[in-house]
Amino acid sequence: MPAFAESAAEPPLADSYRALLRLGGNDDGGRQDERARTKVTPPPQDDEVIITTTQPVSECELPLIDVGCLTAAAGGAEERAACVAAIATAAAEWGFFQVVNHGVRQELLEEMRREQTRLFRLPFEAKASAGLLNDSYRWGTPTATSLRQLSWSEAFHLPLAGISGKGCNNSDLTTLRDVTREVAEEMSRLAKTLTRVLAERLLGPGAAGDGFPDGCDDTTCFLRLNRYPPCPFSSAAADAADFGLVPHTDSDFLTVLCQDHVGGLQLMKGSSWVAVRPIPGALIVNIGDLFQAWSNNRYKSVEHKVMTNATTERYSVAFFLCPSYDSPIGTCREPSPYRAFTFGEYRRRVQEDVKKTGKKIGLRNFLV
């Protein structure tokens, strides 16, 4: 790896903020943001931190489900049926739930966090230009045309098959590579178990098969290592860049998330944003767009976002269960509210919409 000893680790997010601020920043057509606004605050200087003041967001208690009877092959039929019913209810009513006894070892997740922290503390030039982890480093939002579209974060977005590839064979990253591979394998096992039981809830026992959903393997699924740096910009500003990750839904079947103790994840419940309180040892699971389409809207892909913290960095690891681009998404039963489409077609349409409008339209494009 090239030497970058004197380089700063932080990505130039503040430069992106200032550039977008000069462009006018806001693309909301003059609509008021959901937060309380007091005045437009100029961006702080490097040595200045502005204390944020926003309307309080209520904290939610996501459904917490013990899935040990699914992941450890323990428990009787009655216990399993109750667990599956709780998962299906949460997927339909919340689109999100938390799981314990999930089979992803806690000591492995703790080792992942240590390696992840070491990775993100590398100089920015090393992360951005040294081809680390198959050149999978991303930061900010390259397509942003306003502050409302800027994600204050950095990440490595790794296809599972790439974790063992040549691009991950750097001697300085051997431990990280091995830990990442183990985390991906255990999260993948959990995700496939959950999608299978959710499908069987609609189709009947055994109807989904061990391979559901079709086309999801190491070449199509992803593991994303996230870091959300402290953000000194005030959310009292009308164009505040306080999104660690902008509001969105996930374009996959299912997402499994391990977040740290800092918090910041919020989801839309009804017409209000609610904050998700971190629970030690629990993983967060959410339904993606493809599962909502396949289930004929029975399971909900819910909009969510990550808010920045003014003083504390936040880490998370997310696994995305994705099919191949040529995989038809299908439906649990006809008639479906959606026309037939493949994952590749869905991804292309999302990218086109974001490029044209700055926003993801998603499933509405595929309604019959």
Automatic annotation (TrEMBL):
Signal peptide: none
Cofactor dependency: L-ascorbate
Catalytic activity: gibberellin A1 + 2-oxoglutarate + O2 = gibberellin A8 + succinate + CO2
Keyword annotations from UniProtKB, A to Z: Dioxygenase, Iron, Metal-binding, Oxidoreductase
Pfam families: 2OG-FeII_Oxy, DIOX_N
Biased composition (Basic and acidic residues): 28-37
Occurrences of domain Fe2OG dioxygenase (ranges): 219-323
UniProt enzyme class: oxidoreductase
Biological process per Gene Ontology, one example term: gibberellin metabolic process
Enzyme Commission no: 1.14.11.13
InterPro entries xref list: DIOX_N (IPR026992), IPNS-like_FE2OG_OXY (IPR044861), Iron_ascorbate_oxido_reductase (IPR050231), Oxoglu/Fe-dep_dioxygenase_dom (IPR005123)
Region span, Disordered: 22-47
Molecular function GO terms recorded: gibberellin 2-beta-dioxygenase activity; metal ion binding
Entries under PANTHER family matching the protein: 2-OXOGLUTARATE (2OG) AND FE(II)-DEPENDENT OXYGENASE SUPERFAMILY PROTEIN-RELATED (PTHR47990)
UniProt similarity note: Belongs to the iron/ascorbate-dependent oxidoreductase family. GA2OX subfamily.
Protein name from the UniProt record: gibberellin 2beta-dioxygenase
Natural source organism: Zizania palustris (Northern wild rice)
